[in-house]
Amino acid sequence: MRFGLFGTGPWAYQAHAPALAAHPEVEFTGVWGRDAGKAAKLAGEFGTRAYSDIDALIADVDAVAIALPPDVQAPIALRAAEAGRHLVLDKPVALRAEDAETIASAVTARDLASVVFFTRRFTPVMTEFLADAVATGGWTEARVDHLGSIFTPGNPFGASPWRRERGGLWDVGPHALALVLPVLGPVTEVAAMAGARDLTHLLLKHEGGATSRLTLAVDAPEAAAREEAVFAGEAGLRTVPRARWNPDEALGRAVDQLLAAAAGGPAPDCDVRFGARVTAILEAAERAISEGTTVRLA
User: Are residues 180 and 207 in the same domain?
Assistant: First the structure.
């Protein structure tokens, strides 16, 4: 399958470009970036071609992989879907639920394959854990603490304007939601509160009655950084395992799922429809914070 890459930042270098270049069933056709010089540099390093026009790259491929900020990703993803191209997207799909839903509708209408790269969801350890947790059932609550400190010297993601503006809710929030939704089910109510710096607390009610509590930040004090997730219920307490993983290997598994779906296999669990539901919850959390209310989701 011919792939075009959109984006030339750290994540394109760490995950997308090496995964596409190494995948035996992928032809890495070209790359587009907002900085032509960076696009030429990435293309040279990975043996592909730099494109100066978005639509020209879309026209030359069967699928696109996007490693761009969500507000830049969304319109490109929609153009690619409307042109009949399969999608490998980053999280969050968009910064507005309406935009994410429009992309999902375009994918559905054209029977395209899509996958959203919720990184750890594409590791064998996490796949096994979630399958076992779903099979066990009886969970009544979950707690996820995902707090980091990216605005430190040498961290390549600290230079990201959208992360500085949107904070942990939109950066690590999607990862937390991608963990709890498969186990506890769809979210029906969202309450949230903002703390110091970008600290955000979410309280979610799920369709079956379970609740989850998410604590999120990407600008936490370094000494307060932590990552832990626990499910509780009839089976007791179960802590989500942590395992070492490589971004390019995880992206390669995401591409495997896309290729299988495009060939008529099942849709990936983390497809663009799932990504749109995550965006809707994040948008509801922003509203809950600004209005001091509980937001109900359809």
Answer: yes
